[in-house]
Amino acid sequence: MQPAPNDCEQFRSADFDSVIVRYGGELGIKGAWTRRFYERRLLKNIKSVLKRYEILYNRIIRKHGRLFLKTSLTTESSKKLARVFGVSSLSPALETTSKLDEIVDKSVFLAGLILREENTFAVKCRRVGHHPYTSTDVCREVGRRVLDAFPERCLTVNLKRPDETLGVEVRNDQAFVYSMVVEGAGGLPLGTQPRVVSLLSGGIDSPVACWLVMKRGCPIVPLYFDNAPFTDESTTERAMNVAKVLSEWAIGFPRRVYVTLNGPNLAEFKGKRRFERLTCILCKRMMYRIAEKIADMVRAEGIVTGEAIGEQVSQTLQNLRVLNSAVTKYPIHRPLLGFDKTETEQIARRIGTYEASIQKAKGCTAFPRKPVTRAKPHEVTEAEKALDIEDMVERSVKSLKIVNL
Ligand code: ATP
Ligand code: MG
Questions:
Q1: In the CATH scheme, what architecture does the domain 7-183 have?
Q2: Which of 9, 13, 282, 388 is the 20 to 30 Å CA partner of 320?
Q3: What does the CA dihedral 306, 265, 394, 391 come to, rounded to 10 degrees?
Q4: Which of 224, 220, 221 is nearest to 201 (CA)?
Q5: Using the 8-state DSSP alphabet, how is residue 279 labeled?
Q6: Hey, whose CA ends up nearest to atom 14 of ligand 1?
């Protein structure tokens, strides 16, 4: 598991003037057209973040698979940009020219700031363009000059497990020197894939499911079902708070939650005592149907839920099969299908939704005493025949409210 993407404690003060934004990984292996499209979207998302947090910058240079952000607010911008999907890593850096002497001078300056007594260090260089030296020459020269510059610190070179690494990136006539690497969110830039309707309950699982599809580039339309009077405002408030945390990962995209009433549907299911054990199945099928209508409305390509095999009684494979049959127009995507609860919780903590998800909220009181673990398709069909499902769906869709966060 990666460390928290916003964990920037290793930052130390230096007069950095640039941030190297890396987005290699998957973006690097795309074809030229796709890559350009992804890069443009990434740049747009990065600019939205900088604007939102009022981070002043001079410009952003796109060069050979990297972005170089020219700003003096390097710590803050690295921290914020680590949350932009598609960014694999970032480094506050010092810019210089590609002259070897100048690269060495800057590197020695940076080494002076970061290396402590008896530290071991390594030098790493990546180079694009034609230069009168090789990358190995850069490493050797910087290493030698750092050792010469601080004899009192008793430094040694260790290429395998150094305490610190000095990095040099040479790009044609420019070069950037850095020492720390902040891990980015990875994935694909948000907005490079179609949008999806995400069923967001506010519990621990569904926000993680939302985040995982966002990470793969899909903007989400969060859909919350208000089950009052079987839940209350505390449940709704929790969902809204969770949605706010998620929106921090989607800066530049609408900060909205779609809310529809599902309580009246639940009341009708509860009214049919014969089918009491099927309550959760009938309720979920209703949610899927309503989600399908919303998906049509917002032109989404699918529906996302936080279900995982066997995580709840309604999530046995037999029950999931029965749930699936409620909708045919859109696929139900379940990014957590194979996750253990502890894995889901780990991600929830890392992305910041966990705290909001565990805030006190009323659990659904419509939960039956003995919920069915293996729903039979014909029983569900029979139960739904006794109700006017279409009318119920329409009523819920009519109750739709779009809440701006
Ligand atoms: P979560 O932790 O996400 O609440 P859960 O493990 O408690 O999920 P269920 O309550 O069975 O499981 O819900 C399964 C999925 O159905 C949720 O992950 C979510 O996607 C969706 N869902 C459940 N209740 C609601 C709701 N009130 N509004 C929107 N979506 C919901
Ligand atoms: Mg839950």
A1: 2-Layer Sandwich (3.30)
A2: 388
A3: 140
A4: 224
A5: H
A6: 307
Domain locations in the chain? Answer: 7-183, 196-404
Helix (H, G, I), strand (E, B) or coil at 61: strand
pLDDT tens readout for residues 90-138: 999 999 999 999 999 999 999 999 999 999 999 999 999 999 999 999 9
Which among 237, 241, 333, 226 is positioned nearest to 286, based on CA atoms?
226
Rounded to the nearest 10°, the torsion over CA 97, 100, 106, 107 is 130
Q: DSSP E strands: which ranges in 64-195?
A: 66-70, 89-97, 120-128, 156-157, 164-171, 174-178, 182-183
Q: What is the DSSP letter of 320?
A: H
Report CA(305)–ligand 2 centroid distance (Å).
11
From CA 361, how far away is CA 204, in angstroms rounded? 12
Indicate the length of the chain as a whole number: 405
Cα of 10 from ligand 2 centre, angstroms: 36
Residue 164 burial (CB count, 10 A): 18
Split at pLDDT 50, 70, 90, the class of 314 is confident
Question: What is the pTM (predicted TM-score) of this model?
Answer: 0.92
Say if ligand 1 is within 6 A of residue 361 CB: no
Helix (H) or strand (E) holding 257, with range, is strand 256-261
With the most atoms of ligand 1 within 8 angstroms of its CB, the residue from 206, 290, 354 to mutate is 206
Query: Is residue 348 a contact partner of residue 204, using CB atoms and an 8 Å limit?
Result: yes
Q: Identical fold at 7-183 and 196-404?
A: no
What does the buried/exposed string (b/e) look like for 237-266 if buried means 16 or more CB atoms within 10 Å of the residue's CB? Answer: ebbbbbbebbbbbbbbbeeebbbbbbbebb
Domain over 196-404 is classified CATH 3.90.850.10: no
Q: Which of 90, 91, 88 has the alpha carbon at shortest distance from 28?
A: 88
> Per residue in 276-290, pLDDT tens?
899 999 999 999 999
